[in-house]
Amino acid sequence: MSALLQIEDLRVTFNTRYGPVTALDSVSLSVNAGETLGVVGESGCGKSITALSVMGLIPSPPGKIAGGAIRLAGEDLTQASEARMRALRGAEMAMIFQEPMTSLNPVFTVGDQIAEAIMLHQKVSADQAFRDAVALLDRVGIPSPDRRARDYPHQLSGGMRQRVMIAMAVSCRPRVLIADEPTTALDVTVQAQIFDLLNEIQRDFGAAIILITHDMGAISEMADRVAVMYAGRVIEQGRADDVLDLPQHPYTRGLISCIPALGKGEDTLREIPGVVPPLHMLGAGCAFADRCAHRAPRCDSEKPLLQAHGHHPVACHAVAEGRI
Amino acid sequence: MTPSYLLRRLFYGLLLMLGVVVLNFLLIRLAPGDPAVVIAGEMGGADEALLAAIRADYGLDKPVLTQLGIYIGNVLQGDLGQSFFFNQPVATLIGDRIGPTILLVLCAQVISILLGVFLGVIAARKPNGVLSGFVSVFATIGYAVPVFWTGIMLIILFASVFPIFPVEGMQSVRLRDAGFMIRALDVAHHLVLPAFTLALIYLAQYARLSRASMLEVLGSDYIRTARAKGASERSVLFKHALRNASLPILTVAGLQFGNLISGALLVETVFNWPGMGRLAFDSILRRDYPTIMGVLFFASAMVVVANLLTDLSYRLADPRLRGKS
User: Fold this and answer.
1) Nearest Cβ partner for B230 among A90, A104, A108
2) What strands, in cross-sheet order, belong to the sheet with A176-180?
3) Is A243 exposed, middle or buried (0-12, 13-18, 19+ CB in 10 A)?
4) Distance CA B124, CA B242 (A)
5) pLDDT tens per residue, range B126-141
6) pLDDT for B172-210, tens place per residue?
């Protein structure tokens, strides 16, 4: 049986002033019902573009899905009409965004905004939808939800707003929930609460969650499987434990060694030297080569493909050749 | 929005009106010309004794500050004085003409906002599309062209080429005694050209402003959220985006109201619309001080009221401003 959501060889291009650039290149991911897939990588690696592609929200133009397929329970979303996508968005798949401060409309009450999501997909009266919204606010742990439902976003704290976003996203019990850096803008204590909430909701609703983050701690806490992305490609993929404990790709190793550990007596924070190359300047070889300690001539001339090695697939010549 | 806030705003409004009265009075006294000579001219003769009698009669022989004091005292009692030219109370003159002016100004305001915002929203949907380009060009032309020129061009167009709209006055003489509905339709028919002439310049501004404002709002995170929950494009545009984009439009609408009234002066003159604008224009030529001051007083009152309403509606539209003062 195939996965609930299956992304196959997805290629997304953007027209820029440097000409067309490939934001996603042969990205293949899948996630099953009740499972959490973590997607990690630095800013600009294509995590959010992947999420927006699934939702059909790539700004187009300039963006375009240039190849591949996104199958939700077998249905290819890249071929779906806009009307069909509207029916799926919010109902079958929903998204929680990074910026709770700006992701809610400032001129409507939060109750109305949740009720709107309900009424877009279910035949219920406005009163019933509002009552459902209050129940959802209660479910996501907002105290005195009756009163809070009549509040405007600016009257709520960041953590509360993210809870509202989660309530809105799960209001129609979507089968796929995409959380794009849901805790980046929040305090650490609130982060843990939000992750707990996402876990609970997954247990209740059985949704598949795609958790996009650059926080390896969040991955280890939340994800069943993880995909590491770099410059628009998936470079390593596997069970979260395997990837975290036995990272193979030099980039993944770098990411994990960058996590500061308490009590180890380290004075400086570790970092991966260099920056992600701009997408319009990607050459023929491995995009990570410039920053890699294991660079060989082949790395500059040939893109490594994702292939099984050890516990899980990785895209690295050095690993494939046994140099590391 | 608390009652105390409202009261404070009203108090400031009244203070502002008082300032306007004083400034109007002093400014008009600074203008060259002697009203006594004008009045005497209307009566046909002008020897010194007559001029002195006229000055004494109208209180023009007293020091300016004394005159100001008397005038303010009268205004506070609701007496705007007697027109030199018409020899009627100024309040009566204005009362007869303020209705048509308010009708014209409000119609122009509604037309320019509704049509302008609609064009702006449509243009913002496809910022690089043909319609968007058209709106930009139209807005630039509409903004650049003087209102009297537009009026004259429309008169030429509709008087000779397409005679479907009346180009002068507010009512047809032959329909004076018809039923209310017929007369209302007749007035509406007469209103079309002056209202559109007056609306055009502001329509262009609203189109530009709402296009820019919508473009900014459409790029914001909550619009993406609305799309992510499956809202239709129309709901995204007209519900989620427009409500936010309307905030700067409201501000400008309030500020423009004063300009609209001064624009009405020109339009009323061009289309012979029996409003306050023409009264002001004629009174300035005749140095009819009390009438000019009366017209300015009412125009300022309208602007003060419009600004107050703008402020209140702003608070209604943006919940973040409620409860603050």
Assistant:
1) A90
2) A93-96, A176-180, A208-213, A36-40, A225-230, A233-239, A312-314, A307-309
3) buried
4) 11
5) 888 888 888 888 888 8
6) 777 777 778 888 888 888 888 889 888 888 888 898 899
ipTM of the prediction: 0.84
Residue A245 burial by CB count (10 A; 0-12/13-18/19+): exposed, middle or buried? exposed
Interface test with B, best of A95, A102, A103 (most B CBs within 10 A): A103
Report chain A residues whose CB lies below 8 A from the CB of B238: none
The residue of chain A nearest to residue B221, with distances taken between CA atoms, is A103
What are the tens digits of pLDDT across the range B10-28?
A: 888 888 888 988 988 888 8
* A168 vs B contacts (CB less than 8 Å): 225, 229
Contact B228 A107 (CB under 8 A): no
Q: Which residues of B touch A165 (CB under 8 A)?
A: 225
B228: chain A residues, CB-CB within 8 Å: 55, 57, 89-90, 94-95, 97
Containing B316, the helix (H) or strand (E) segment is helix B289-317
Q: Which of B229, B243, B244 sits opposite A116 (nearest CB)?
A: B229
Question: What's the token pair of residue B242?
Answer: 């427009």
| Residue entry with tokens 């289309």 | B271
Q: What kind and span of H or E run contains B170? A: none
CB count within 10 Å of CB A6 equals 18
Q: Are B240 and B222 in contact (CB under 8 A)?
A: yes
- With 90 as the cut, is the pLDDT of residue A250 above it? no
CA dist B31 and B321 (Å) reads 44
**Whether A305 contacts A285, CB under 8 Å:** no
d(CA B277, CA B268): 6
- φ/ψ (deg, to 5) at A106: -65, -15
Give tens-digit pLDDT for A252-298: 888 888 777 666 666 677 777 777 777 777 778 888 888 888 888 88
Tokens of A18: 């440097």
Contacts of A99 in chain B (CB under 8 A): 221
Q: Is the pTM of this model over 0.80?
A: no
Does the distance separating the beta carbons of B229 and A117 come in below 8 Å? Answer: yes
How does DSSP assign B20-83, residue by residue?
Answer: HHHHHHHHHHHSSS-HHHHHHHHHT---HHHHHHHHHHHTTTS-HHHHHHHHHHHHHTT---B-
Q: What's the residue count for chain B?
A: 325
**Chain A contact probe: residue of B126, B215, B222, B243 with most A CBs at under 10 A:** B222
Task: Tell if the CB–CB gap between A105 and B320 is shorter than 8 Å.
Answer: no
Distance CA A237, CA B19 (A): 75
CB contact under 8 A, B225 and A165: yes
- Chain B CA closest to residue A60: B126
Q: Chain B: which residues have CB within 8 Å of chain A?
A: 220-222, 224-232, 240, 243-244, 317-320
- The whole-angstrom separation of Cα B207 and Cα B203 is 6
